[in-house]
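ok trying again, last paste got cut off:
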Amino acid sequence: MSSIVLLGSTGSIGVNTLLVAKRFGIGVEVLVCGKNIELLNEQIKEHKPKRVVIADKKDVVKVNHSCVRYGPEAILEAIEEAESTLVVNALVGFLGLRPTLKAIECDKRVALANKESLVASGAFIDTSKIQPIDSEHFGLWYLLQERPVSKMIITASGGAFRDWPLEKLAHATLADTQKHPNWSMGQKITIDSATMVNKMFELLEARWLFGEGQYDAIIETKSLIHALIDFKDGSTTAHFANASMQLPIAYALDAQMDENILAHVDLLKVSSLKFRKIEKERYPIWEIKEDLLQNPYLGVVINAANEAAIEKFITKEIGFMDISHNIIEAYEKFRDAPKSIDDVFVQDAEVRSFVRSAK
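nice, full thing came through this time. structure:
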């Protein structure tokens, strides 16, 4: 591979992708970012992309590049016109779905970190073109063998409120949600971690990536185990690795990856691990987990409801615990499975409107 298209270059996954690309001598044909123009200009200087796409027209003059476009349509055009055969999609939110679909339509591989693509539209995506770069799905892929599987399990950190008294959760603020116990991430994904919606999304992604079967999630507080597989013979394997997106990214960029990317986990230093059940009292969204896995086509509902509810939480229209309650209310109302990709976009709009107008 000589070059890549990178969507979401200034986020944590984008930054790590550029580090791995530089290490492997892979060029960057297209950089796509939102509003962090200062960091984007640093990336342009170092990686010299042929084309740049940003979110807003008003920021074009700030970008130090001769070929700058803006807006969602420009992202799709850049994918279609690029010579690169790999698109790394690290965009956040439903915005990332159309680029995933466009890349597959153009017969490109997608290294996918945009959860919403599979969550909202897994039934209409050719997953043979997808290489997951979430650590949990990478871990499951890494562990899979030619043996009968009983259950696939992913792990959760528990988010910002895993140790909070339950009675305090209703009063949690936006600033509180951002205090992740294990690492620093973007605003939305850190909120999703606190509600456990993030893990619900990842279970749905696993369902689309690996097919029908039993899926579950547990809390592992140190984030050193990313996935486990229960085999039918009674044995269980676990994927241990120090938390870094560079490992799954490296495999997406180089299938023959044989370099040392991370320091090994030193179990003597770790000393012990703690596991917890994901409780509905702390994470109300877990009430619909089993039903959603039986009806994965309804992922578009929980994704749209979640994004709309987070908007309301940020503007202080609702409290933290209301995010999950808004999602569940929408999930109980919208039960029709989309029959086409066009239906996905129609349903997404309907659910958002419902949640935004809900009291």
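cool. Residues 146-245+268-357 form one domain. The chain has two domains: 3-132, 146-245+268-357.
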